[in-house]
Design a protein that fits this description.
Elements: H1 2-9, E1 11-21, E2 27-37, H2 42-53, E3 60-64, E4 67-68, E5 86-91, H3 93-96, E6 119-123, H4 139-151, H5 158-163, H6 168-180, H7 191-198, H8 206-216, H9 219-228, H10 234-245, H11 248-264, E7 273-277, H12 282-290
Parallel strand pairs: 1-5, 6-7
Antiparallel strand pairs: 1-2, 3-4, 3-5
Helix pairs in contact: 4-6, 4-8, 4-10
Length: 304
């Protein structure tokens, strides 16, 4: 009987409070009450939290009185936790792509883990457009030009990279893009390559990854890298940069509309492959579009 009373007295509730990031990068404040026992370990408590919350264990870190709880295997009472104590958790997407993550140890074209693969490509058909412009690329458009840049360089050893004073996280972003998908140009018949691209099923969520890259990879960094590393066929890459700029308005609208559509969809899915096709009739479309003051822009879907 004494043992049962002791166990009852040790039953407590720990409150977890912090910020959660959903699939499209939106963040909100949340809290969960997690039942526990003073005699159990911190790791068991955190495991139960993930079971209750359904959050991804790779993307959150926990703190109590300023200490990272991940390094504790002690019992709750040993670190001062008691009934009603608050544990703060933080979303740390950056650590998912951290160079300290062991999954980065052997990144190459053969054994790249599926969740680090990016299947994206800008496919050029048309010739020069009067609407080409040297605009600052953002979001998916930036991801496209970085993919093209990664395909045209030989990444040096990480040690050499550090000596150049270049950020490590940028190195690993380029490595992910370089080995995620190799597109073979065939201007006369691109269909097989496009079909292959869209058949990819396991990879990073492109919207989430582009948001992450936007924060970590400024265009000024790309310009500094180009001064340091030899770029194969740089004129072709600069041409792609100018062409992508003309889709800035449309891609911005697409990124907002697709996130809205995903939120209201009855299905759960994410974008893991994406191609941007350079329109051969872009100039004519823009000219005719300017003549229509009452136009309405709408995102349309069709079956595959």
């Amino acid at each position: 009987m004494q043992s049962n009373i002791s166990s009852l007295n040790n039953t407590i509730t720990i409150k977890f409070v912090g910020t959660v990031s959903d699939f499209d990068g939106q963040k909100c404040n949340c809290d969960w009450d997690v039942p526990s026992n003073l005699n159990e370990s911190v790791s068991d408590l955190i495991s139960r939290f993930f079971q209750i919350s359904g959050l991804n264990a790779n993307n959150y870190r926990f703190y109590f009185n300023g200490e990272n709880l991940r390094k504790y295997e002690k019992q709750l009472f040993q670190i001062g936790l008691q009934n009603g104590s608050k544990i703060e958790f933080a979303y740390v997407e950056q650590e998912f792509f951290s160079p300290n993550n062991n999954n980065f140890g052997n990144i190459n074209g053969e054994n790249l883990p599926f969740n680090y693969k990016i299947f994206i490509k800008f496919i050029k058909f048309s010739t020069y457009s009067a609407y080409n412009g040297n605009k600052e690329l953002k979001g998916i458009l930036k991801l496209c030009i970085l993919k093209e840049f990664a395909d045209k360089i030989n990444l040096p050893d990480i040690g050499i990279w550090k000596l150049g004073g270049l950020p490590e996280i940028v190195y690993f972003i380029l490595k992910i893009l370089k080995y995620g998908y190799n597109y073979q140009y065939d201007y006369d018949n691109p269909s097989p390559n496009i079909k292959e691209l869209f058949q990819k099923e396991k990879g990073c969520n492109i919207i989430n990854f582009s948001n992450f890259v936007d924060e970590q990879f400024k265009i000024s960094i790309l310009q500094n890298i180009m001064k340091t590393i030899y770029v194969n066929n740089i004129n072709d890459m600069n041409d792609s940069y100018c062409r992508l700029g003309k889709y800035e308005l449309y891609m911005s609208s697409f990124e907002k509309d697709i996130i809205r559509a995903l939120k209201h969809s009855v299905f759960e899915f994410s974008i893991v492959s994406l191609a941007i096709l350079d329109s051969e009739n872009f100039d004519k479309f823009e000219d005719e579009r300017a003549k229509c003051p009452n136009r309405c822009t709408q995102l349309l879907y069709h079956g595959t």
